[in-house]
Amino acid sequence: MLSISHLEISTQSEKALSQLNKKNRFRRLLTELNRTKYLQLLVLPGLIYFIIFKYIPMYGVIIAFKDFNMRLGILKSPWVGFENFIKFFNYPQFNRLIINTLVLSIYHLIFAFPASIILALMLNEVKNQTYKRFVQTVSYLPHFISTVSIAGMLVLFLSPQGGFINNILSYFHIEPIYFLAETRWFRTIYTVSDIWQGTGWGAIIYLAALSNVDQEMYEAATIDGATRLQKIWYISIPAIQPTIVIMLIMSLGKMMSLSSEKVLLLQMPATYEVSDVIGTYIYRRGLIYAEYSFSAAVGLFNSAVNLVLVLISNFICRKVTETSLW
Amino acid sequence: MVKDNSVSSIVLDVIIHISLFFLLVVTLYPVLHVASVSLSSPSAFERGLVTFYPVEFTLESYKLIWEAGTVPRAYLNTVFYTILGTTINLIMTASMAYPLSRERLPFRSFYNKIVIITMFFSGGLIPEFLLVQNLKIYNTIWALVLPGAISTWNLIIMRTFFQSIPIELEESAYLDGANELIVFIRIILPLSKASIATIGLFYAVSHWNSWFSALIYLKDSNKYPLQLILRDIIMQGQMAQELAAQGDLSLLEKQTTNVESIKYATLFASILPMMVVYPFIQKYFVKGVMIGSLKG
Fold it and tell me: Across all residues in chain A, what is the average pLDDT?
């Protein structure tokens, strides 16, 4: 009919055009998917792995809000809301767990963290490169010794029967001490083993930063009459200051996520007062006493706190140094 | 460095060298002591005579471990777990890292986000444990090897590495009609030997040293890896019980007089492989740390 106006023709053609565009885009997507099909095939196993082993447990964490019953399964177990969380917060040793976790992290920060920095600064002052590399290599050997071996060494060396520490004490006529059974020694033992294991490895990053410093700066400082200590203070330390700040902030973000494997190996009921941390509590209540829902709730609480701390610390990191975790 | 001979400089050098020497001693003494006790007679040990060299040299402790059989079996288990585990790790990690490094992968940023999220949040111990049970892999080797098949950290390192391989190298192969699988296997992988070796070592060391997964997922003690047996022997004094169960009385007698030495021998036997291999592999790890820290 010739009464079709220009307006109708343009709206009709607009509609036809947009439908054609959509079909084109769809067809282009299909072509793209077909073109890269082998690439997608390659990525598929990994994706399946992530879904099964990472995301399904994330979903499974809802048992924290239920009263999980093995026979009923996840879906049919009754819903209890925040009951498990409240139970945990009211647990008489709740404070103790948090404090123990924090104290071990803080001790690490005060003693182990600076040890790596000091070691790096000292190694940097060594003139003989071969000797420097030798010491460095020996220093990170403990990092590769397994946690069990280290705990095993501690158990043997600190044993009241024949451990060499007690042998040394006996030369001073001191009675053998059962170190690992006493609350006043646990944190020291744990921190010292952290230092032994981690100082050399932690120094790597600082040494890398120090090796990037222009040697001419040191020479110029010598001409200006600077002493060794002054050179360290005014050149070496500022050179690694950004690294220190980043590592410090990252450590603060990990305060509550203390790895509990070593604690688990070194603790005993006699020392729970100082040695029980959140991680070991989750393990004990969940897998030994089979309180699945309760333990999952504690775990979720821990993960949430860690997530918040990491996000905050990353935010601060970005603000302070214009660099970030991602 | 221009030499500076002032007194304060010399004092500093002395302090540094004493400290570093102290570091060497403190790092090496525990290892030497363990080795020495394991090679000394039990009575020398009881008399507190052993420091960093064997006293009254004997191989008795090692003979007993060998005869009892638990440790050699655990050794084989660990070797097997490490080889199988690392192979799976490398196949899974590399096959996922490569596509993620290529921009033309559809939904690439979505996949990247999925990966990164797992670095910040996870289901936790109990949901993972229940998953292993539901998948019916509890008390099997698969429970040790599948849950950790891809480490997000290693995946990102490998992805970064693949990104540095220029795309021009692939383009001529595509023009010749190759598909991405062929490009991956024939071109990319041969170029990535260093990265694969490094990541492979990361995974291998982690398998070798692992004990917690075995603790929670394995029930039969003949499947236990070395670290778990070590823990049992040192922390729980298990060996004597096992021998009593086997009914071998003469062995049991020898065991009880040697109890402490056996612990030292087992301990040294488990750190020895790592120490032998260490000088050769440590530079890979250092490089890996540098790459990892640059990226993150």
Answer: 88
CB distance B260–A162 less than 8 Å?
yes
Contact across the interface for A135 and B120, Cβ inside 8 Å: no
- B108 shares its domain with B246: yes
Same domain, B144 and B282: yes
Which residue in chain B is spatially nearest to A204 when comparing CA positions? Answer: B286
Q: Which of B58, B81, B97 finishes a domain?
A: B58
Sequence letter at residue B259: V
Distance from CA of A62 to the nearest CA of B (A): 9
Q: Which residues of B touch A55 (CB under 8 A)?
A: 114, 118
Q: Which ipTM did the prediction report?
A: 0.87
Count of domains forming chain B:
2
Best residue of A126, A132, A144, A283 to probe chain B, by most B CBs closer than 10 Å = A144
What are the tokens at A250? 């990252």
Interface test with A, best of B104, B107, B126 (most A CBs within 10 A): B126
Average pLDDT along chain A, 326 residues, taken 10 residues at a time? 64 82 84 86 94 93 88 83 92 93 94 95 92 92 93 92 88 89 93 94 91 88 86 89 87 86 91 92 93 93 91 84 49
Report pLDDT digits (tens) over A6-48. Answer: 676 677 888 888 888 888 888 888 888 888 888 999 999 999 9
Q: CA separation (Å) from A294 to A101, A151, A291, B69, B154?
A: 19, 29, 6, 40, 32
**Per-residue pLDDT tens over the stretch B173-225:** 888 888 888 888 888 899 898 889 989 999 999 999 999 999 999 999 899 99
- For residues A222 and B94, give the distance between their C-alpha atoms in angstroms, rounded to a whole number: 50
The answer to whether A176 touches A166, Cβ cutoff 8 Å, is yes
By residue range, what is the domain housing residue B275? Answer: 60-296
CA dist., res. A289 & res. A325, Å (int) = 38
Q: Is 1.10.3720.10 the CATH classification of the domain at A83-321?
A: yes
Check CB contact of B12 with chain A, cutoff 8 Å: yes
- The CATH number linked to B137 is 1.10.3720.10
Residue from A254, A313, A248 nearest A110 by CA:
A248
